[in-house]
Amino acid sequence: MQQALALTDQQVDDRTILQVVVGSRAFGLAGAGSDTDRRGVYALPASAFWGLRKPAAHHEGPLPEQMRWEVERVCGLGLAANPTVLEVLHSPLVETCTPLGTELRALTPAFLSRRVADTYLRYATAQFGKAERGIARDGAPVWRHVMHLIRLLTAGGDLVRTGRLVLDVGTDRDRLLAVKAGMVPWDEVVAWRDRLVRRMAADLATSPLPERPDEARVEQWLISVRDRSVRGAA
């Protein structure tokens, strides 16, 4: 397999259709020294894919904590209910949004389905396993990671229950920051996790989310993006 063609910062900047702030600033967990985590989407012209070597599906930088994905990759990850991509599509802190970016944001309901429960639970289970191994090895987990796992499960549970993904942690802020500081005993964190898991499982049967995402709608939009790039309309 040939290595993907690396893209320059300028190439990605010129084709960026959406850039948002995620992380602690979008979650309502930022402090004085918090980073600004930027994530975005770029849409390359269809001609970029005609050769044997395909362009990179993601690009880091040039700003610190900045990552952007090519739009086809975003569509695939979004349909798989990838939490990171769903947060990008739902972040209220928008820095760049072209007409194509507006279309993508309007498409976000097509990505949502009950599949989010499985994806969020599998991810959280794997990461809590890592935290437990960290306790066995070092005597304590990485508390910042544990805080974000609880936050993720809370957001995922709310999404399953209401059909809406809200990034801000609201009234959970103080307790989550206490977890980050290592001030909440591990057994209490585990009990919190277990309550969230049980509630998400119980709410799944009555969730307003559809069983599956609207893959046909997403694919139709992606094809239109490529087609418009050939015709010079995007």
Would you summarize the structure shown here?
This protein has about 230 residues and is of the alpha+beta class.
What is the molecular shape? globular
Mean pLDDT: 95
Number of strands: 5
CATH architecture of the largest domain: 2-Layer Sandwich
Low-confidence stretches: none
Estimate percent helicity. Answer: 55-70%
Largest sheet: 5 strands, mixed
Strand-residue proportion: 5-15%
CA(first)-CA(last) distance:
31 Å
Strand order of the largest sheet: 3-4-2-1-5
Number of helices: 11
Q: Radius of gyration in whole Å, from Cα?
A: 19 Å
The CATH class name of the largest domain reads: Alpha Beta
**CATH T-level topology of the largest domain:** Beta Polymerase, domain 2
- How many separate structural domains? 2
Query: Strand-and-helix sequence, N→C?
Result: HEHEEEHHEHHHHHHH
Q: What is the structural class?
A: alpha+beta
Give a written overview of the molecule.
With 234 residues, the chain is α+β, with helices and mostly antiparallel strands. The protein folds into 2 domains: 120 residues, Beta Polymerase, domain 2 (2-Layer Sandwich); 90 residues. It contains 11 helices and 5 strands. The protein has a 5-stranded mixed β-sheet. α3 packs antiparallel against α11. The protein is globular and about 60 Å long. The two termini are 31 Å apart. The mean pLDDT is 95.
